[in-house]
């Protein structure tokens, strides 16, 4: 019998078909095992795998870690944004993650970090901030002073008093005065009263060599008067009376001196407050009137 081409083809196809059937049988057996006890054993093995540290974090913690990682970016704006978002979370752990930014090379990042760490305990935040009062950049020092005031920590009083007395920039001195008022420690009364009547060296070469002096910056004196009113220290009354009576002190300084005298409630201020009623400044007149009312009715609080 002569073999046809079809017969030859069938001979070659038979082993191939047999091999395919064998593989199919093996797959079916594997599926049967999985459908039985194998599936449970596989499942048990899977859930016993230890979770990584990242998957064990809460969504909020993962976000904090992402922002922490962005603090290492080479892009200043990305670092600043990360610090801002950490501060906006208003949590101790997010504020703690922002701590390294206090030493960032960029001014804007350091200044932003000063406010971003305020969700830490007051003492811890103050200790972290204090070195920045000596920062080479005025903006950083100013933002640090404001941030220290918000901590309300007495740990910062001495350093803020030094900044008020010695910093070369009026913005920083004013911020230090504001912060001291927020903290409210009467130990700061002497440096605040000194600031109200202080005379400082004028700028310019000729003024320096002739030792000419001028009154302290008006913002600094105004901030000092407000702070003394917040502290309600009777030791500040003489300096406040002098500021109120000084027509060259500036309207805002005189107004805040009158307001502070009303808050302190010392009757010795009444003659000066009554004299202020004759001023041409209607705002000062209103403030002095209210201060007199408070003193006469004993409502200084």
Salient structural properties:
301 residues, mainly alpha, Leucine-rich Repeat Variant, 3 domains, two-stranded antiparallel ribbon, 68% helix
Using the coordinates shown, work out and report the CATH topology of the largest domain: Leucine-rich Repeat Variant
Radius of gyration: 37 Å
- Report the helical percentage: 55-70%
Task: Characterize the largest beta sheet: strand count, sense, and whether it forms a barrel.
Answer: 2 strands, antiparallel
Overall pLDDT, averaged?
84
Provide the number of structural domains. Answer: 3
- Fourth-level CATH superfamily of the largest domain: Leucine-rich Repeat Variant
Oligomer: single chain
Number of beta strands = 2
Shape-level CATH architecture of the largest domain: Alpha Horseshoe
Q: Please state how the strands of the largest beta sheet are arranged side by side.
A: 1-2
Q: Tell me the β content.
A: under 5%
Number of helices, counting only DSSP H or I runs of 4 residues or more: 16
**How would you sum up the global shape?**
elongated
Distance separating the two termini: 126 Å
Helix and strand composition category: mainly alpha
- In N-to-C order, the SSE pattern is HHHHHHHHHHEHEHHHHH
The CATH class assignment of the largest domain is Mainly Alpha
Q: Low-confidence stretches at least 5 residues in length (pLDDT < 50)?
A: 1-52
């Amino acid at each position: 019998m002569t073999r046809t081409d079809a017969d030859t083809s069938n001979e070659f196809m038979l082993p191939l078909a047999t091999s395919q059937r064998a593989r199919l049988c093996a797959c079916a057996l594997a599926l049967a095992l999985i459908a039985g006890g194998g599936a449970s054993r596989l499942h048990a093995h899977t859930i016993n795998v230890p979770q990584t540290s990242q998957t064990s974090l809460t969504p909020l913690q993962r976000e904090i870690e992402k922002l922490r990682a962005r603090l290492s970016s080479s892009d200043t704006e990305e670092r600043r944004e990360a610090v801002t978002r950490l501060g906006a979370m208003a949590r101790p752990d997010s504020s703690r993650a922002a701590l390294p930014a206090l030493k960032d090379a960029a001014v804007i990042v350091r200044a932003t970090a000063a406010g971003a760490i305020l969700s830490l305990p007051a003492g811890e935040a103050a200790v972290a901030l204090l070195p920045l009062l000596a920062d080479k950049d005025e903006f950083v020092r100013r933002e640090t002073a404001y941030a220290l005031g918000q901590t309300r920590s007495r740990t910062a009083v001495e350093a803020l008093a030094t900044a008020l007395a010695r910093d070369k920039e009026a913005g920083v001195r004013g911020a230090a005065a504001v912060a001291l008022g927020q903290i409210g420690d009467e130990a700061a009364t002497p440096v605040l009263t000194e600031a109200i009547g202080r005379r400082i060296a004028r700028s310019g070469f000729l003024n320096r060599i002739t030792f000419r002096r001028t009154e302290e910056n008006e913002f600094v004196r105004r901030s000092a008067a407000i702070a003394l009113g917040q502290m309600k220290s009777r030791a500040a009354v003489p300096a406040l009376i002098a500021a109120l009576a000084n027509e060259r002190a500036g309207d805002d300084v005189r107004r805040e001196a009158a307001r502070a005298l009303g808050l302190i409630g010392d009757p010795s201020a009444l003659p000066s407050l009554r004299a202020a009623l004759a001023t041409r400044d209607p705002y000062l007149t209103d403030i002095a009137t209210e201060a007199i009312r408070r003193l006469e009715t004993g409502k200084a609080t």
